[in-house]
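It is worth pausing here to work through a concrete case rather than discussing structure prediction in the abstract. The textbook approach is simple: state the sequence, then state the predicted structure, then interpret. We follow exactly that order.
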Amino acid sequence: MTSIVQVAERLHSEAEAWDLKAYVLGALFYRFISEDLCDYLNREEREAGNIAFDYASLSDAEAEYGRQATVEEKGYFLLPSQLFARVQATANSEENLNEILNRTFASITSSARGTSSEHAFDGLFDSFDPNSQALGDTVAKRNQRLAKLLIDIGSHQMLDAAASFDELLRYYVTIAGKKGGDHFTPPSIAQLVARLAAAGNPAAGAIYDPAFGSGSLLIECNKRLSDSASSSRVLGQELVLTNFNMARMNLMLHGIGFDHFDLAGGASTLTDPTHASDELFDIIVSNPKWSASWPGDKDPLLISDPRFAPAGVLAPKQYHDLGFTMHAASQLAPGGIAVLVQSLGTLYRGKAEAKLRGYLVESNLVDTVIQLPPDWGYGVTVPGCVVVLRRAKRDDAILFIDASREFERVDSKNELLESHQRKILDAFLSRADIDHFSRLATREEVQAEGFNLSVSNYVEPQSNAQTINIRLLNAEITGIVRTQTILREEIDAIVAELEGSDA
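Step two, the predicted structure:
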């Protein structure tokens, strides 16, 4: 049995890992959809009375009869000769393995073209290029490497494909450091965001992430929703195409069908939003890359964009963070909630960002600000924060929660365990003052602070100094002095006696 991380390590060195991740992730997904298709068709036929049916043993000609019905149900189609197990079985001796894989992936894409699942499979394997020089400088070397990958993926005991995919994602972002952290939200932070979002709108009909990376926030939110929201739509946009492909695979591996998601990739949400500007969402979650640059006021059209115009100012060119906050606020449904992971700088930086915070506070959109512990991200040691927006708040105050101490050190990172997440969620739901942990501040207080939203301005930190009982301390000192006096008298008497005997 080969672990999925061992598969990755056998394909590439650590230096190559980030650039070659799409091959391991893509091969795992290829195996998953092959086995999932066989399981589905075998189950359907056997339930219909065809007990001996085995899709993998059919000829391609026999299998073609079921293509249309299969695509309608599963969203894609694979001939028996294209199944992972069949391709893997001859991989070592197949001189044209690269072309077979190319044709297979093209076939998967074309099977969905013109159907309701086209958005899920179009270009899905573009990052898996069997002819890439990154795999080797000759066809023979590339095929040798690809064969090794398929065989290793096939030997992996895949009890839970989604868990294996998650394990691979964590492995890649861990060794990539900050570069990886820009594309992946750690599990405990994703769980906290999803808990807050689901608690704020448990019957959500639509979940949206304007910078979804690997899709982890969308997946966690979908898991947390109540049964009444089991048919929620999952939507989002992502600039990096490799992430776009990775996220679509991730959603499908986690059981979110092609008919329940609508993701777009290849363009920035801030400058080229894909979803309609008037489309509103019940839940918005996001952890966009922190403090990245964007056109800002260099683009004269942005200040008149309905998403940004109400504030009368744009996020500065060097910090796009509050641009995403304004975007989220503009697309939030009347009863919706937005839970955004952000850099701490968005809470206190001045000039344009202070004006943007002022607009959000005066519009009564800021519901909660949570200070996170340090060193929870990948390649990022600074704390970060969570900002919660609501359109239908129960009051005009802002809840501040200091969760900077809510963590346990696990390996090389600080983790928010179940108990930490529950404590934060309970405070979020109760909106109650808790000494040294949470405080509900009035809008007037925040205005008086110049719209500085730093949690430390509102929640008094717990002092590490010991409380001293002065009376008890004085009594102890008096006792010590009395003891010292008695001892000195005894010593003087002994000395005097010794001096007398000498005389």
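Step three, interpretation. The first helix runs from residue 4 to 11. The radius of gyration is 30 Å.
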